[in-house]
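[agent] plan:
  1. take the single chain provided in the ticket
  2. run structure prediction with default settings
  3. attach structure tokens to the ticket
  4. add a short note for the reviewer (M.T.)
[agent] executing step 1
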Amino acid sequence: MTSAPSGRGGPFSDAQRRIRRNRWLFTAPLVLLCVLAVVLIWEIVRGNIPEAARTHWPWRLQLMSAEPLASLLAVAAGAVLARAQYARAIRPVLGWRSEFEPGLLPGSGKAWKVGILNGGQNNAVLEQVDYHLVLARNPVGEPGSGVEWAGLTTLGEQLADAGLRAAVDFRIMYFGVGYPMVATGSHEAIPVGVFSKRFIGEVRALYMRIRVTDGVGDMHERIIDCLKGARESVVAPVEEEPPVTEASPGLPAARTEPQSGPPPA
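[agent] step 2 finished; step 3 output follows
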């Protein structure tokens, strides 16, 4: 069965990426650094032209002496670098894991369970969760063509139209805006969905897009293919075999019955 593209570089890239920076904590210091750099270049050029030329416009314009300006520039550059290093240190590390597990859905079979976690050093705040459904019967489209994201309510309607039943074929957890993605420091994942074998057969891919904000106001995004790996033989569930009983006794020995016939002479 063909799967939708989910590798790096496509519309469903599974790599975490930063999609927005905080305007005040990143853009403003960077703009200030650029302005100070332009002013310093102006003062350096102005200080190296003849004295007579400085009496004419625009060289008469003196913004700031070079010494304090260089100090301000060094402070601004240090602030920008410190902010970048701090943002990298506290950025969330969004990961996911999945496996087959029994007892999660009605029936005796094992269900595919998916969970997410924040493996970074600091907490993050959940901002948005969206889904994109690709049914097995739908044709595979071109990468990046008409990707539409939907909320959980719309996803439930799409799955119901496909004949899949909630709490029987699947269970998807609802996350509210502002949900804290706690830095666990371990590999304990937060469950996001449980899917039956019938669901895996009817659905080609179910993408979940998670957007979180870290401590400096930057927004990060991770797209997870919830069914990725569910069809791989290396993670196939081990079905329980019936208990081994003692060997059944052999067939009873044949009995010889006396046959009637003429009496011997």
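[agent] step 4 note for reviewer: Residues 163 and 202 are 9 Å apart (CA to CA).
[agent] ticket updated
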